[in-house]
Design a protein that fits this description.
The protein contains four helices and seven strands. It is of the alpha+beta class and 203 residues long. The protein has one domain (2-201): paralog of FGE (formylglycine-generating enzyme), CATH 3.90.1580. The longest helix has 11 residues, at 21-31. The protein starts with a strand and ends with a strand.
Length: 203
C-alpha cells in the first residue's frame, strides 16, 4: 500500500496494484468460500475478476481494509494537479493495457504489477486499463444502462436494486478520455471477466 495525500481529502493508504488471484485465493481458503468462476490457478499475479462488489467488500473486511470511495479513487489517479490520466494529460494508449494500445499483439488481462510507465503520481499501477475497478459509491443508473444490462442479466436489473460505480476502463476497451474521473454503473450482483478491485485503508 502507498500513502495518498490529496489536497481536498484526509490521507489514506491505497493498494499499489489491483487485488491478485493469489491474495483472493487465500481469502477463499481461509473463509471456506468457492473461487470465482473460471479462476485461473496458474496466474497468481493477475487481478482477480468475476467477483461482485459484495465479494470485493468481504475480501476487504477480511484484509482489514475497505473499498475506496469515488473521491479517493479519483484523487489517487489524478494527483493534486487534477490530471486527466494517471501519467498526465496526454492521451497515450501505449501507457496502459487497453484495446487501442498499438504495441500489444493481444488484448487480454496482464499481471497486476504491469505498466509501471503508466503509474499515478503516487506510484499506483494500472488505474487506467487492465480491469475496471469497483468503487464504493452507490449511483442511480441511466435508462440506457438499465436497457443494456437487461440484455446481460437474468433476471434483468431494476432501478430499485443497488448499483455501484466502476472506474478506470479495461483491457478490452479503448483508453477512455479523461479516464481518471470518468465512470460507469453496474448492479451490485454483476460480475464479469474485466472487473476487479483494489483496497484502501485509513492511516
Amino acid at each position: 500500500m502507498v500513502l495518498v495525500r490529496p489536497a481536498a481529502l484526509p490521507p489514506f493508504y491505497m493498494d499499489r496494484t489491483e487485488v491478485t488471484n493469489e491474495a483472493y485465493s487465500r481469502f477463499c481458503s481461509e473463509r471456506g468460500r468457492p473461487l470465482p468462476p473460471g479462476f485461473p490457478p496458474d496466474r497468481p499475479d493477475f487481478p482477480v475478476v468475476n467477483i461482485t462488489i459484495v465479494d470485493a467488500k468481504e475480501f476487504a473486511r477480511w484484509a482489514g481494509k475497505r473499498l475506496p470511495t469515488r473521491s479517493e479513487w479519483e484523487a489517487a489517479a489524478r494527483g493534486n494537479d487534477g490530471r486527466a490520466y494517471p501519467w498526465g494529460n496526454n492521451h497515450d494508449p501505449s501507457l496502459a493495457n487497453v484495446a487501442d494500445n498499438p504495441y500489444l499483439s493481444t488484448h487480454d488481462l496482464m499481471p497486476a504489477n504491469a505498466f509501471e510507465q503508466g503509474k499515478s503520481p503516487y506510484g499506483i499501477l494500472q488505474m487506467a486499463g487492465n480491469v475496471w475497478e469497483f468503487v464504493d459509491e452507490l449511483i442511480t443508473p441511466s435508462p440506457g444502462a438499465l436497457q443494456a444490462f437487461a440484455k446481460l442479466m437474468s433476471p434483468p436489473p431494476t432501478i430499485d436494486e443497488p448499483w455501484y460505480t466502476i472506474q478506470g476502463g479495461a483491457y478490452n476497451v479503448p483508453l477512455i478520455r479523461n479516464v481518471s474521473f470518468e465512470w460507469s454503473a453496474v448492479p451490485a450482483r454483476f460480475r464479469r471477466p474485466d472487473i476487479g478491485f483494489r483496497c484502501v485503508k485509513n492511516p
